[in-house]
Every structure is written in C-alpha cells, then in structure tokens.
Design brief:
single chain, 316 residues, seven-stranded mixed sheet
Length: 316
C-alpha cells in the first residue's frame, strides 16, 4: 500500500511539472501567419535634447519602422531608459505611441540602465508602472501560440547554477510542450560576444551569462526546439553559433554606438558603422528566417538595409 501511494505521488508530481504554463500566453488564433517577431535593445529613451548618450533620430526611425512591420511581438533586451527615472519613461510613452495604436505586444527584459540613477526598489517600481502586467516579476515566459516559447531573463540577477532564476528557467524549459519548435531567450548582458582586448573590454561576456550559455549548450542537442538567444549591452550587432545555439547581440536601438573588433567566430564581418538596427524573425512551416534591418541616417536612398540574413531549419 505504501509503495502504491509513493508511486501515485511521483506520478502526480510528474504531471504537475509537465503542465506548468508559461507566465503569459497568446493563442495560435491571435497570431497571423507568418509569425513575425522583432527583437532589439539599448534605446536609452530620454529627452531628445540629449544626443550624446542616445540618438533620437535613429531611435524614433526604428520605432516607426517596427510599427510598420506590425509584428506579433516586440522583445526589448534591456536599457530601455537612459537613467531609469520617470522622465525617461515619459519619453518612451511619447515616442512609442504608434506601437500602442497598433496594439503591439511589447515584452521587455531588464538592463543595467533601468537601475542607473535610482535605488533598486524605486527603479523596479517605475519599470513595473510602465509595464503593470509584469508587476512583481523580474523574469518571465511567453507562449506565442503552440510552437514558440519566449523567455525574458534578468541579467542583473544571478543565472548561476542553483540560483532562483536558473532553477525557474530549468523548470520552464523542462516543462515545455513537445510542440514547441523555437525557444527565444532575451536578456541584456550577452552570453557570447566578440572578446575585446582594447575597446570595451568591460563589456565582454561575464561568468553569470557564460554559465547560462554552458547550460543551454548542454540541453540544446537533446531538445526538440531551436534555441536563439538575443542580448544587448554592446551597442552594435554580432552573430555566433555555439553548441547548437544561435547567439545574437542586438544593441542598436539608438544608444551611443560602440565600435568592436570582430573575431573570426563572429558570423557577421561587415565593417559598416554605426549599426542602428533591429532583428526581424519570421517563422514559417519548417524554418526560421532572420534579418538584421539597419538604419542608415542621412542616406538619400536605401535608408533601410538588410545587412545580415540567415535561416535556421526547425526540428520536425
């Protein structure tokens, strides 16, 4: 009798783990085909008179172009405000009004500039006031239909093995439906990037995010979904494939651009600079196409350019 009770308990625990739902979900019926997702970050919304920390012309051009795309969702990988103060969020609301007019779904991740000029509780409160559906959450997941699981992580908190956030992530990925074919992870600090020895060496990948990469590369080969990780923090564009995981750096949302020395591992070797841009993902029946859409300020023609393009086959 005791053995049977234990077996029933184990079965119940396994059932509950398998039925864990994403924090938010959007039904397939509300997602028009093909599924288009936008990801980018490092806008540093602030008063438009500030033109050194952020470029308001590029920032606003990107907002309008994304609005015209009418994507199913927009993922912001951090540093949405410049200082994390109330006026920054007021500028965000003013400049992104067309996003709300089109009822775009916006999913932000926390960056370091969300905490730049205020105490952590005050900064978080302002972020949650702007995104009230996230109140109490620093990381969360979104099921976009039955085939896409998106995860927004907080790289200001620990991602090391055994941490609260890491255990939560492991539970989310272990419980994903077998129908999921794409796992999109957005966060601010990059797990993989061009290692700098001179420029911006303080923006090189940190142990916190490298631990995340090691974990993902350990599970990706056995999974039934493609893993794509999009980070920011470096105000440029980079692309890597490592351990079966695709890593992008998309920090071209308007913040002061950073020049980088590209390593051979970087699959994007173009010398164009600056790279104000966003990443456009389009999911079709059996593959995912991705494009880096670059804004060239002041160009008389060809203001918008597709500067990188790649495709990933999706597991059957």
């Amino acid at each position: 009798m005791r053995t049977a009770s234990i077996a029933l308990l184990v079965s119940a625990i396994a059932f509950c783990a398998a039925s864990v739902a994403a924090t938010f979900s959007v039904p397939d019926s509300e997602l028009p085909p093909p599924l288009v997702l936008i990801a980018y970050g490092d806008m540093r919304f602030t008063d438009s008179s500030e033109t050194n920390a952020s470029n308001p012309i590029a920032r606003q051009a990107l907002i309008a172009k994304i609005a015209a795309e009418r994507p199913a969702a927009v993922f912001i990988n951090g540093d949405l405000p410049w200082h994390g103060v109330a006026p920054d969020y007021e500028v965000y609301r003013e400049e992104t009004g067309q996003w709300r007019e089109r009822h775009l779904r916006i999913y932000p991740a926390l960056g370091n500039h969300e905490f730049a000029a205020c105490s952590e509780p005050a900064c978080l409160d302002r972020w949650w006031r702007e995104f009230p559906e996230l109140r109490g959450l620093r990381w969360y997941s979104v099921a976009l239909g039955s085939k896409v699981l998106a995860v927004a992580l907080d790289s200001d908190a620990s991602l090391l093995a055994g941490s609260e956030q890491r255990l939560w992530l492991q539970g989310e990925l272990a419980a994903q439906s077998p129908k999921v074919r794409l796992v999109l992870i957005v966060l601010h600090h990059p797990p993989v990037a061009d290692l700098q020895t001179d420029k911006l060496a303080n923006h090189n990948p940190r142990p916190n995010e490298q631990a995340l990469a090691a974990y993902l590369e350990g599970i990706a080969p056995q999974g039934h979904a493609r893993f794509v990780v999009i980070a920011g923090h470096i105000h440029n564009y980079e692309r890597f494939e490592q351990g079966g995981v695709q890593y992008l750096v998309s920090g071209g949302g308007g913040a002061a651009p950073y020049a980088v020395d590209r390593t051979p591992a970087d699959l994007y070797q173009d010398t164009d600079f600056p790279n104000y841009h966003y990443v456009r993902l389009e999911m079709r029946a059996n593959d995912l196409s991705a494009e880096m859409i670059r804004y060239q300020q002041g160009a008389a023609a060809g203001q918008w350019q597709t500067r990188d393009r790649f495709e990933l086959s999706l597991p059957p």
